[in-house]
Specification:
Layout: H1 18-25, E1 82-83, E2 87-89, E3 95-97, H2 107-121, E4 137-139, E5 187-188, E6 198-199, H3 214-222, E7 230-232, E8 245-248, E9 251-254, E10 256-262, E11 274-283, E12 289-299
Antiparallel strand pairs: 1-2, 2-3, 4-7, 5-6, 8-9, 10-11, 11-12
Length: 300
């Protein structure tokens, strides 16, 4: 059968890891990037490290604790168990040492070391561009703090609120331009004539909200406390992944993110600005999910 394969093509026999099979079952498997590792490769001391004799037996692909590089959550926001070199993050956010003892001194230690160690243990093969220093840093490198006091940062919004009084997701203006949250009453459209839609019934728009505008967002952002992080020593093909967590004595909780998209105004250097709302989704007394905004993140 090998003779039927086009000589100009390459066939890769892939096997899904435990993480991949779990994502496939959940309907969230999306292959976006490919990487190569030399884990398990056998090198000799011959010319150019090429073996002069047949290599040993190769074993079937297997899963390792480092298959998952970062923390993930399901569609309900529940964190999946994450296994690192030293720490394990249980699905309820509880952090334990691999030995099963109590949590580490710092939750941030478990988050940062677990993800970086998993990435390092992949032993990925890569090409270092000329002049690249291979580093990554951001300024400032210290912890950034915000001060909460009367009138700041809640000068335009109430500093306290009862969750039952906060608008639910389908009435939240932060989602006012997301198609899945728009008022879309069912209609019937004739195949032959476009524009002759007939409503299938009378439906009430329970949200009754106007779309949030960029102008309103700019006013709100200008009135908030701001901190700036500057990333340096990047490459031309860099990809940044940002995750936000809330840490407490009870464990770790991953914050939810609403993507607003690109803002109409550019920054002072003419670069595009992208806005994200970070917060929590909490069910009110009627079981209606409600988004509680904590941070506004602007990426440029």
């Amino acid at each position: 059968m090998a003779g039927l394969i086009d000589a100009k093509t390459r066939v890769i026999d892939a096997k899904l890891t435990l993480v991949g099979r779990r994502s496939l079952v959940d309907g969230g498997l999306s292959i976006a990037y490919a990487s190569f590792s030399d884990v398990g490769a056998v090198y000799t001391r011959g010319d150019n490290n090429v073996a002069d004799e047949p290599l040993g037996l190769g074993f079937e692909a297997f899963s390792t604790p480092w298959d998952e590089l970062s923390f993930t959550s399901d569609e309900l926001g529940i964190m999946r168990q994450f296994v690192g070199d030293e720490y394990i993050v249980i699905s309820d956010g509880t952090v334990k040492n691999q030995s099963g003892s109590a949590a580490p001194p710092s939750m941030l230690t478990a988050i940062s070391s677990g993800s970086f160690d998993s990435f390092t243990n992949q032993r990925l093969i890569k090409t270092v561009a000329d002049g690249a220093d291979g580093g990554f840093s951001f300024i400032p490198s210290r912890v950034i703090t915000f001060t909460v006091r009367d009138g700041s940062p809640f000068s335009v919004e109430p500093s306290e609120a009862i969750i039952d009084d906060v608008e639910g997701l389908f009435a939240d203006r932060r989602l006012s331009k997301v198609t899945n949250f728009l008022f879309l009453p069912p209609i019937q459209r004739a195949v032959s004539s476009v524009g002759s839609e007939v409503s299938l019934g009378t439906y009430m728009n329970v949200s009754e909200i106007d779309q949030l505008t960029d102008g309103e967002i700019e006013v709100t952002i200008s009135d908030l406390q701001t901190r700036t992080l500057t990333f340096s020593r990047l490459t031309d093909s860099h990809r940044l992944m940002i995750q936000a967590f809330e840490t407490s004595d009870d464990g770790i909780k991953q914050l939810d993110v609403i993507e607003w998209g690109q803002l109409s105004e550019l920054d002072d250097d003419g670069r595009a600005r992208y806005l994200y709302f970070l917060g929590k989704v909490i069910d009110d007394g009627s079981g209606i999910p409600t988004f509680v905004n904590i941070f506004d993140l602007v990426v440029r």
